[in-house]
Specification:
Elements: H1 4-14, H2 26-43, E1 46-54, E2 60-62, E3 73-77, E4 83-84, E5 99-102, E6 105-108, E7 115-123, H3 142-163, H4 170-197
Antiparallel strand pairs: 1-7, 2-6, 3-4, 3-7, 5-6
Helix pairs in contact: 1-2, 1-3, 2-3, 3-4
Length: about 200
């Protein structure tokens, strides 16, 4: 798996920034990679499963510190493997077991079956904690993250030049626009591959 240091080196290579000292600092490249990873996580969130022990008869599943975003819950399954639907807000008294998000947990409309309840949900992808940590990417997605980081860096340079009143460098703005188009093309191709795989 690719580390932050390896990805930063690949980004520096794409920028043709091999001089000493380099034009781009490591923190600037890391900030662009963090932004690219945020974009990546929004486009392709991580899928996780949380198992919660629930007492028989309870009507509350505490999520607490597990940081599950109720809007990103895909499925709630009881200990017997039965999928429990989200409660329709227009129906305050549904006929069967349902759940709804409330505070830091899930409220059930009926007493629960005791045991492990499964909550499948999507979450953000964590930025690496250091240079040796692997990036939280699916296989083959490094080029997309690099493209987003490159576009962000070039756009940032064009904006910085404009703010400082430096002479306009149309070349940087053109390169930034081209990098964003490349990133959009990679994203579209990645989404097509994902659709074809399902």
């Amino acid at each position: 798996m690719t580390t932050r240091a390896e990805t930063r080196a690949a980004l520096r290579l794409r920028l043709n920034d091999a001089g000493s000292p380099p034009l781009w600092s490591d923190p600037a490249l890391d900030a662009a990679l963090t932004d690219a990873l945020r974009r990546y996580g929004a486009a392709f969130p991580k899928e996780q499963t949380l198992l919660v022990s629930v007492s028989a008869g309870a009507q509350w599943i505490a999520l607490g510190a597990n940081a599950v975003d109720p809007a990103r819950i895909l499925r709630v399954t009881d200990p017997n493997g039965v999928a429990i639907p989200r409660q329709d807000e227009r129906d305050p008294n549904p006929a069967g077991q349902c759940w709804r998000a409330w505070a830091d947990g899930l409220a059930l409309t009926r007493p629960a079956r005791g045991g492990l309840w499964r909550i499948d949900h999507r979450t953000t992808r964590a930025a690496p904690s250091d240079d040796a940590a692997p990036l939280d990417l699916l296989p083959g997605d490094e080029p997309l993250v690099l493209a987003w980081a490159l576009a962000a860096l070039l756009e940032s340079r064009a904006v910085s030049d404009a703010v400082r009143g430096a002479p306009a460098r149309d070349g940087v703005a053109v390169l930034a626009a081209a990098a964003w188009r490349d990133a959009a093309a990679l994203l579209a191709a990645r989404r097509r591959r994902a659709r074809m795989a399902t």
